[in-house]
Design brief:
It is a single chain. The chain is 40% helix and 14% strand. The protein is of the alpha/beta class. It has a 7-stranded mixed beta sheet, sandwiched between helices. Helix 14 packs across helix 15. The structure holds 4'-deoxy-4'-aminopyridoxal-5'-phosphate. The site of 4'-deoxy-4'-aminopyridoxal-5'-phosphate has 16 residues, from helix 4.
């Protein structure tokens, strides 16, 4: 038994499923997870010292690769001055100023500790300012684990077979209306049926928790128009797309304005951070300025802010990384598609910016229904083969592959060789 398997046995005695977040348990691919001891650049190392080229990147935050010196040094320096004060610090102003300078249409920022909290708080704000209760979300989109968002959710809620979680009170779920991603008419129908009752639409501008599904032309613009027509707020959940799709996130990439934007992952540089942002008028409805309550003992934590600030500063100073990551991802998607054709495996690869996702299906994937059509057994075999060849992917179909700014030509060549070997073995 290898060290990971031994640790997993021990873990399952004291942690549900042996993990602190379900997808890490590798259940969707029917394997025991790798326990990780360290990571550096594009590589992660398991408890047996095996090296993997990492495309999970901690599920997105590590856009500059692991153990980036600028972030590490900022964190080490911050820890020397104390871990938490429960009082305001200058760094919180600096990171908010930086975010406002990098992202369109936001004037104010409230820091929280996770993407879940960011979404939960943005939804409360939307309900507070509109005086309406109902929300529209999209089937297969994931917005964290707050009660009202665990309705037809994506990511590991979907992969684990519980897109609508047990334990969510009917009262919390009844105001969550579900529409279909890339289908404006499904949204129009909900507005017609519930005119004047809908506080907000929340959307992942690129759906990245059903695998990766890009918005079709006009979809996001259509959501904007419907929100304007019906007096609802448009919330972009940019926990994945923020500072990834472009420096200004999906708003910048697609040229569509959101009223509220949620962030997580990248803004923490690997530390637990989330944020919700919007215009001054909207954000000043939050406590202590206004009646929408929200707070956090560790929110704006000085060490977490140091990490996020270092990462965002680096990104702002090195905007060339976006073109570089996109080129890598485009070439990778093309090479994967070619390998699938050559080996006769039915695979459709979606790619946008630095997000890549293979689906095991013969036809293009443009909707949640298409995504669900992927052969999950084939994904499991693909995952196992890639891991065996030293490439770490998301251990479930309904996730993204994250390319970082430090993936190299050597990583690329090894990854493509692993894809070819894995797909060949799958057919054989
Ligand atoms: N929104 C989106 C789009 C996400 O992808 C995630 C997590 N993957 C969340 C919200 C929740 O973030 P967290 O896990 O930090 O609570």
């Amino acid at each position: 038994m290898d060290t990971s398997a031994t640790l997993f046995e021990r873990a399952q005695r004291v942690l549900p499923g042996g993990v602190n977040s379900p997808v890490r348990a590798y259940r969707a691919v029917g394997m025991a997870p790798r326990f990780i001891t360290r990571a550096d650049g594009t590589k992660i190392y398991d408890a047996d010292g095996k090296e993997y080229i990492d495309y999970v990147c901690s599920w997105g935050p590590m856009i500059l690769g692991h153990n980036h010196p600028a972030i590490r040094e900022a964190v080490v320096a911050a820890t020397m001055a104390g871990l938490s004060f429960g009082a305001p610090t200058e760094r919180e102003i600096e990171i908010a100023e930086l975010m406002v300078s990098m992202v369109p249409n936001i004037e104010m920022v409230r820091m929280v500790n996770s993407g879940t909290e960011a979404v939960m708080s943005a939804l409360r704000l939307a309900r507070g300012v509109t005086g309406r209760d109902k929300l529209i979300k999209f089937e297969g989109c994931y917005h964290g684990h707050s009660d009202c968002m665990l309705v037809n959710a994506g990511s590991s809620a979907l992969a684990g077979g519980h897109p609508s979680s047990a334990g969510v009170p009917q009262g919390a779920a009844k105001d969550t209306l579900t529409a279909q991603f890339n289908d404006l008419s499904s949204v129009e129908e909900l507005f017609s049926a519930h005119d004047g009752e809908i506080a907000a639409i929340i959307v992942e501008p690129v759906a990245a928790n059903m695998g990766v599904v890009t918005p079709t032309a006009g979809f996001l613009q259509g959501l904007r128009a419907l929100c304007d027509k019906h007096g609802a707020l448009l919330i972009f959940d940019e926990v994945i797309t923020g500072f990834r799709l472009a420096m200004g996130g999906a708003q910048a990439h697609f040229g569509v304005r959101a009223d509220l934007v949620t962030f997580g992952k990248i803004i923490g540089g690997g530390m637990p951070v989330g944020a919700y942002c919007g215009s001054r008028a909207l954000m000043e409805t939050v406590a202590p300025c206004g009646p929408v309550y929200q707070a956090g003992t560790l929110a704006g934590n000085p060490v977490a802010m140091a990490a996020g600030l270092a990462q965002l500063r680096y990104i702002k100073d090195h905007q060339e990384i976006y073109l570089q990551m996109e080129a890598y991802a485009q070439n990778l998607a093309a090479a994967m598609t070619k390998a699938a054709q050559d080996t006769g495996v039915a695979m459709a690869v979606n790619q946008i910016g630095s997000l890549v996702c293979p689906f095991f299906t013969p036809t293009a994937v443009t909707s949640f229904v298409d995504a669900k059509g992927s052969d999950l057994g084939a994904y499991a075999r693909y995952f196992a083969g890639m891991l065996n060849h030293g490439v770490a992917l998301a251990p479930a179909q309904f996730e993204a592959m994250f390319v970082s700014a430090v993936h190299t030509q050597d990583d690329f060549d090894k990854t493509v060789a692993a894809v070819r070997a894995t797909l060949s073995a799958m057919e054989g």
